[in-house]
């Protein structure tokens, strides 16, 4: 079993700015030890002839081709807007800042 000490977990928590109780530190040390054990098992099985992968199945691009189709004009899109300003939708300020 991988040994990750409680002081190491406390140090990691401080670095991550996570406030943990004594009980949480103990529990996290055991859980991180289990994770490290699992990683060690995988590393022991994987040989040099196995390429690193990010996905178990090959990925393929499934996007459709761009096709120009008729759409709303700016005036039609803005026609139902509750407020319009300078040809754009006017929305309430949410961050308290001026543009």
Automatic annotation (TrEMBL):
Recorded superkingdom: Bacteria
GO molecular function: asparaginyl-tRNA synthase (glutamine-hydrolyzing) activity; ATP binding; glutaminyl-tRNA synthase (glutamine-hydrolyzing) activity; transferase activity
Catalyses which reaction(s): L-glutamyl-tRNA(Gln) + L-glutamine + ATP + H2O = L-glutaminyl-tRNA(Gln) + L-glutamate + ADP + phosphate + H(+); L-aspartyl-tRNA(Asn) + L-glutamine + ATP + H2O = L-asparaginyl-tRNA(Asn) + L-glutamate + ADP + phosphate + 2 H(+)
InterPro entries given in the database record: Asp/Glu-ADT_sf_sub_c, GatC
Assigned EC number: 6.3.5.-
Family statement: Belongs to the GatC family.
Record has Disulfide bond as a keyword: no
Known partners and oligomeric status: Heterotrimer of A, B and C subunits.
UniProt KW keywords: ATP-binding, Ligase, Nucleotide-binding, Protein biosynthesis, Transferase
Function per UniProt: Allows the formation of correctly charged Asn-tRNA(Asn) or Gln-tRNA(Gln) through the transamidation of misacylated Asp-tRNA(Asn) or Glu-tRNA(Gln) in organisms which lack either or both of asparaginyl-tRNA or glutaminyl-tRNA synthetases. The reaction takes place in the presence of glutamine and ATP through an activated phospho-Asp-tRNA(Asn) or phospho-Glu-tRNA(Gln).
GO biological process, one term: translation
Protein name: Aspartyl/glutamyl-tRNA(Asn/Gln) amidotransferase subunit C
Any Pfam family the entry gives: GatC
Species name: Kineococcus xinjiangensis
Keyword Protein biosynthesis found: yes
UniProt-listed SUPFAM superfamilies: Glu-tRNAGln amidotransferase C subunit (SSF141000)
UniProt lineage: Bacteria, Bacillati, Actinomycetota, Actinomycetes, Kineosporiales
């Amino acid at each position: 079993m991988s040994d990750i000490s409680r002081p190491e977990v406390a140090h990691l928590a401080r670095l991550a700015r996570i406030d943990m109780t004594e009980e949480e530190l103990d529990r996290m040390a055991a859980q991180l030890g289990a994770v490290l054990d699992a990683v060690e098992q995988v590393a022991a099985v994987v040989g040099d002839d196995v390429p690193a992968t990010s996905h178990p199945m090959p990925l393929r691009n499934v996007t459709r081709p761009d096709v120009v189709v008729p759409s709303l004009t700016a005036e039609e899109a803005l026609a139902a807007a509750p407020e319009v300003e300078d040809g754009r939708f006017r929305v309430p300020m949410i961050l308290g800042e001026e543009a």
